[in-house]
Design brief:
Number of strands: 9
Shape: globular
Number of helices: 6
Largest sheet: 7 strands, mixed
Structural class: alpha/beta
Helix content: 25-40%
Distance between the termini: 8 Å
Low-confidence stretches: none
Strand order of the largest sheet: 2-3-1-4-9-5-8
Strand content: 15-25%
Mean pLDDT: 97
Radius of gyration: 16 Å
Length: about 200
């Protein structure tokens, strides 16, 4: 199996994004799965094309996107992407869509096609705090997940796809008042490894 796993660039006032920091540290192979890594822009306009370009280049059997969820204390395996862009914060291009669809006239929602229950169980059994989430938000993370799942449903049904949100790193949390929940980078990396192993 060839897995394409993506993380995001930093956004807002952050100088790091734990999603891509963790993705970078993953080995090139996990079990029988080849790991291909890519960084996605925090951009409503550019993230979808960047993901599709990476998929065309690497021809994956599955795609796992990873993003930051400030305030979370656990890894969140997303079950649902909704057809809505409603940004409380401008993206890195300065765009801040409100009440706009990801795909005009597209379905209201798509479900992840990864085995998220199995992945969550593997994380929990491995001692990594994790839960199933039913909302990926309405920012660029949800935009990318919806874009991915729409593409898979309409053009590449043989490919699996999904999304995991990860908490802040401790160094990010330390600069905020009051400090929000966080997770060590090594623990996030281990969580992603366990999730990927569950795909095999």
């Amino acid at each position: 199996m060839n897995l394409l796993i993506t993380g995001f660039a930093p956004f807002g006032r952050e100088t790091v994004n734990p999603s891509y920091e963790a993705v970078k540290l993953l080995p090139d192979h996990i079990g029988g799965i080849k790991i291909t890594k890519a960084e996605m822009p925090v951009s409503f306009a550019a993230s979808g094309p960047a993901l599709k370009a990476a998929m065309a280049r690497h021809r994956p059997d599955a795609v796992l996107c990873v993003g930051q969820a400030g305030g979370y204390s656990k890894l969140a395996l997303e079950r649902v992407a909704i057809n809505l862009q409603d940004a409380s914060l401008a993206d890195n291009d300065g765009a801040q869509p409100v009440d706009q669809p990801v795909v005009p006239h597209g379905p209201a929602a798509y479900f992840s096609t990864l085995p998220v229950k199995k992945m969550a169980a593997a994380l929990q059994e491995g001692g990594i705090p994790a839960f199933l989430s039913y909302s990926a938000g309405t920012y660029v993370c949800n935009h990318l997940l919806y874009t991915l799942l729409h593409f898979l449903h309409t053009e590449a049904p043989s490919i699996q796809g999904g999304f995991i949100h990860v908490p802040y790193l401790p160094e990010q949390a330390a600069g905020k008042t009051p400090p929000p929940p966080s997770m060590e980078l090594s623990q996030i990396v281990r969580g992603l490894e366990l999730a990927i192993q569950a795909l095999a």
